[in-house]
Amino acid sequence: MKEVAVSIQRSGVVLLAVVVMCVGCKMHSHKSGPDEKLLPAVAKQFDDVPAPIGFKLQESYTFDLAPHRMFLLKYEGKRHMTQVRAFYKAEMARLGWKLTCESMFGHKVFLDFEKDAERCAVQLEHRRGKVYIMLRSHR
After folding, report:
1. Which of 110, 82, 111 is nearest to 97 (CA)?
2. What is the tens place of the pLDDT at every residue in 57-97?
3. Closest by alpha carbon to 73, among 102, 103, 51, 88?
């Protein structure tokens, strides 16, 4: 009888361990394919210059004195370049920016946007498994 109780107790511990591992995997896994849509993070600098959730701000130089503003924002994160490119094309349009030019060179994508009299250049670069984003204003 004692052996049956020990066996049931071990089975319970093993079952609990399997459940915890499965729940942990589901909580921490994320689809990393190029079709996953990225979401914008809460604006840290300007509410009309987005960054995807999960990307970390590396550098920030801003000057905002209406009606002029200048900025250089650099982010990095782990996503597919196609996801980040699609994110900027969709989010910038949603925020009133018009895509004026798109080009590629090697592992870099360049997107130029215009809104009223302001311009924003977005440079995306894929290096060492990460995507580096640089957003800068230009006139």
Report:
1. 111
2. 999 999 888 778 899 999 999 999 999 999 999 999 999 99
3. 51
